Amino acid sequence: MENPARLGRHWLARRLTSTIEGHSPCLIARYGYVDGVCPGRDEAPALVADPDGWTWTARVRPRRYAWTRLSLRELGGEKHLLPPEELRGDGLRQWGKVRGADVSWRVAVPAAGPGYFLVGDAAAVLDPASSHGVLKAIMSGMMTAHLVAQIVYYDANESVVAQGYTNWNRRWFAHDVAGLRELYGRLPKPPSWVRERGSSSGLPWGRDERRQQDRLAGAGYGRLLDGRPDQ
Ligand SMILES: Cc1cc2nc3c(=O)[nH]c(=O)nc-3n(C[C@H](O)[C@H](O)[C@H](O)COP(=O)(O)OP(=O)(O)OC[C@H]3O[C@@H](n4cnc5c(N)ncnc54)[C@H](O)[C@@H]3O)c2cc1C
């Protein structure tokens, strides 16, 4: 059984029988906000690696700080639901709920077909360390507008254009996956899946491993993923 929460974010792909190829285990980014004063963070956002993953902190407006944490190992359990150490303590208090987002690496194939194009996160998702999800959303939208014009005004063959877009989307995704693997490979003790699934194989995450992730999702991550608070 597929993870319903994850598929909920790819409803069009599902209806159109696109496949959502998984290229990582289930990765859940936790994020939240803290109000107060943390002078060390005021002018200097930080992305800090640790043995399990990374934590990003930044001031997003006066007296408010955002944090995001991704564990590359934690496949179950509900650890890391607190703001990072530096954003706890005197004069600092949590604002709003800690939330979770499914940032498992995945790509829709095909990403276009008769009458539709998938763009942004609907077409491909990577974890925030890839650092250009917003750029990709904008650029895939621009590319789609360009291709639709080719079809509508210049009689380009729709299925050829759709295949070209799918290839473009996949290539960009594969390039970013390779970059993330390289980045995480530099951690002191990278999780084994980072090394085992080298970009050279190009293989999607295996069905058995996905089933395992879906079981984990059924065991509690659904609550995190459907946008409801987890605390
Ligand atoms: C914790 C976290 C931190 C991130 N940090 C960064 C970062 O620093 N830099 C970066 O570039 N990217 C970052 N990303 C990734 C980035 O947020 C996404 O890649 C980007 O927002 C994708 O844009 P999108 O328009 O495809 O999807 P979204 O931004 O998710 O927009 C989709 C919109 O569609 C709406 N919607 C969904 N279903 C329906 C429906 N049926 N009807 C009507 N509306 C609907 C949703 O409510 C939403 O508003 C981060 C992601 C996470 C989870």
What is this structure, in a nutshell?
With 231 residues, the protein is an alpha+beta fold. It has 7 helices and 10 strands.
Write up what this structure looks like.
- By secondary structure, this protein is an alpha+beta fold.
- The chain folds into two domains: 4-27 and 106-219, no CATH class; 29-102, no CATH class.
- 38% of the residues lie in helices and 24% in strands.
- It has helices at residues 4-8, 11-15, 39-42, 133-154, 158-185, 192-196, 207-225, and strands spanning 19-22, 28-36, 46-50, 53-61, 64-71, 92-102, 106-109, 112-113, 116-117, 124-125.
- The strands form three sheets. The chain has a five-stranded antiparallel β-sheet. Strands 1-7-10 form a three-stranded antiparallel β-sheet. The protein has a two-stranded antiparallel ribbon with strand order 8-9.
- Strand 3 (46-50) and strand 4 form a beta hairpin.
- Helix 4 runs antiparallel to helix 5.
- The radius of gyration is 19 Å and the shape is elongated.
- Residues 198-204 and 206-231 have low confidence and may be disordered.
- The chain binds flavin-adenine dinucleotide.
- Flavin-adenine dinucleotide is lined by residues 29, 31, 68, 101, 103, 120-122, 128, 131-135, 137.
Mean pLDDT: 81
Number of domains: 2
**What are the segments in which pLDDT stays under 50 over at least 5 consecutive residues?**
198-204, 206-231
Instruction: Please describe the biggest sheet, giving its number of strands, its sense, and whether it closes into a barrel.
Output: 5 strands, antiparallel
Radius of gyration, CA atoms, in whole angstroms: 19 Å
Shape: elongated
The residue fraction in helices comes out at 25-40%
SSE run: HHEEHEEEEEEEEHHHH
Query: How many helices does DSSP assign?
Result: 7
Identify the bound ligands: flavin-adenine dinucleotide
User: What structural class do the secondary elements suggest?
Assistant: alpha+beta
Number of strands: 10
Could you give the order of strands across the largest sheet? 3-4-5-2-6
Span between N and C termini?
27 Å
Strand content: 15-25%
